[in-house]
Write the structure tokens for this entry.
Amino acid sequence: MVFVTNPPLCQTMELNEFERLSANDKIDLLHKEGVYVGKSKIGDAIAVLYQFDGFYVEIFYRKYRNHIERINCFTSTSGIDAYLNGPD
Amino acid sequence: MARSAKQLIVYAEDDQDDIDLIKESFENYARNIDLVCFSNGQSVLDYLTSPGVNGSPCLIILDLNLPGMSGSQVLKQLRKTAKYQHTPIVLFTTSSLPRDKAFAHFYGAGFVTKPINYKQMDDIIHKFVEHCTDEVKNTIRKELYE
């Protein structure tokens, strides 16, 4: 007898799986399903933070909401204080 | 040939970085569209409902989380006003939550999640323009491809 199990209704992604995605796929996923946490400004540099499944994704901009300098992912909540100003 | 009057887009947003971004993005359409910005919900509602305002904007863009009166409250108030019952309105927000989308849909508004990169920004400006009337879209297309 073969037992066929249905996949779970809600798939979650692990941090290492997310990190293996292309930059475009990361951005598209965040835009569709990420939860905006906040924005941080240091001088002219702007970064925004999203929560996605069980981890956080930090986007550092060269030009706000246009040109991305780099993307950083982490799980610890210690890195989110600078972003906690509420959603826009 | 005389150019038709500029169309008005009203944008309520409290984040200066987002205001700058949208202003810059609409620069390509500046020959056809005037963008007027407000930094809170009450001021945009006061402007839109004041007797001195002539005509209707072709599009109203509302950030969801405005200080004081939120974008969703402004949307509800505008839909109660006969003049704005059918005006294209878009909620422009960092949220991608289904309940926020459902709220926008219930009040006959569009829902656009704020972009993360230039490609999404470009798509979003096109989506905004798509909410305008056919007359506005045709004028813009004509101008862009002249």
Remarks:
- The interface with chain B takes residues 27, 30-36, 39, 46, 48, 59, 63-68, 86-88 of chain A (CB under 8 Å).
- The CA atoms of residues 46 and 63 of chain A lie 8 Å apart.
- Chain A has a mean pLDDT of 86.
- The radius of gyration of chain A is 16 Å.
